[in-house]
Amino acid sequence: MNTKQTKTRKTKVENQSKEISAERRRELGLELLETLPIDFLEAYEILKELVDNCKGRGNRLNKIRKCIRLGIESMKAQTTTVSFREAWEASMETKKSRRKRTRQDLLYIGRHMIKACPELANKPVRSLTPEDCQKWIGQAYSTPSQRKKARLFLSGVFSHAVARQWCEKNPIAFVPREEIKQKRILPLSICEVEELLNNARQLYGGSCLPGCGLMLYAGIRPTELKRLTWDCINLQDSTISILPTHSKTGGARHVTIQPVLKRLLTPYALKARHTPICPKNWDKKWQHVRIKSGWDNKQKNWIPDVLRHTFASYHLAKFRNRRHLQEEMGHSSPQLINTTYVALDTLTKNRVKIFWH
Question: How far are the Cα atoms of 183, 257, 263 from residue 214, in angstroms, in the given order?
């Protein structure tokens, strides 16, 4: 069919359409409405709402059709969801590149929450509300620090669910953050430091001494220490290289080896490359060293980060450089040092001098 024939046919159809009277149009409209599962008034209200919301420039009929299409797509998306367990398992698949310890922690938190809140497992993630999340966090954990970890865990699961369009929003974003009051951790006294070092030197052939020294005189975190090997220790340049795979935050840093630590490490530094700094059964041996030094967790409790806190306080007392200490400890801001790690009021010049001697 050529262009002229097409235009002729179009004109004929339009003329036929104009010949249909207004009354007949209403009759046809009513006939169509009778086939719908809604009455005339409801249909009118829906149509009026569509027309009112599609005002402005452009073809109004096209706008109405687009509005209907987008509405249908939105309704389909809203019905697409999975259970919380499925969302959690799917989010874990995206974390295969994370450290083994991190994955183990996430698995533990997920299993614990489902065990403590069995109804959570099969709940559709789209139906979960901030109130639900807050209730289950409180039901599963009793301490503020545990609840903080659970909140972060759930936030990760829901962020993945939002990305997969299994839910519209992350409900954890609307759960109030719980303020955690940090307890003040005092640095060890000189007597406590000497007792700990002596027992680390005497027990197990001194194999625990390097690890003890790195935590005490370099502020290495206990979890970082377990990942360190001797090729990360450069006595010639007096630096310790904390690789991204070793650090808690995933960022690399270099820590200065002070003279007192260099003297302590030198006798042990002939180890083969890639040999772990911590001996086998480190946790059991290190616990024994602490018990022998007086931390039996009965009369005297051991705080896991006390050596890191001790390092921070003595370091700032000697060098008076918060920026440098921040870099040594691997913090992104000085806030933690100012509010949590430093207890200078407990230190005297003589104590500081003896510590770094």
Answer: 24, 9, 12
Query: How far is the C-alpha of 237 from the C-alpha of 276, rounded, in Å?
Result: 20
Q: Tokens at residue 228, please?
A: 């360190």
DSSP alpha helices (H): ranges in 187-253?
Answer: 190-202, 209-218, 222-227
Q: What is the mean pLDDT of residues 273-289?
A: 93
The alpha carbon of residue 155 and the mean position of all alpha carbons in its chain are separated, in whole angstroms, by: 7
Q: Render pLDDT for 318-356 as a digit per residue (tens, 0 to 9).
A: 999 988 999 999 887 777 777 676 777 888 999 999 999
Residue type, 196: L
Assign residue 31 a region (left: φ > 0; alpha: ψ between -120 and 50; beta: otherwise).
alpha
CB 248 within 8 A of CB 221: yes
The set of residues, in sequence order, having a beta carbon less than 8 Å from that of 245 and lying 6+ positions away, is 99, 227
Q: Output b/e per residue, 92-117; b: 16+ Cβ within 10 A.
A: beeeeeebeeeeeebeebbeebbeeb
State residue 17's pLDDT score. 47
**Residue 238 to residue 217: CA distance in whole angstroms:** 13
Give, for 24, the enclosing helix (H) or strand (E). helix 22-34
d(CA 113, CA 222): 26
State the DSSP H helix or E strand holding residue 309, giving kind and residue range, or none if neither: helix 306-319
List, in order, residues 6 or more apart from 173 with CB less than 8 Å away: 155
In which band, very low, low, confident or very high, does the pLDDT at 41 lie, cut at 50, 70 and 90? confident
Q: Read out DSSP for 40-77?
A: HHHHHHHHHHHHHTT-SSS-HHHHHHHHHHHHHHHHHH
Banded model confidence at residue 13, pLDDT cuts 50, 70, 90: very low
pLDDT at 108 over 80: yes
CB distance 334 to 321 below 8 Å: no
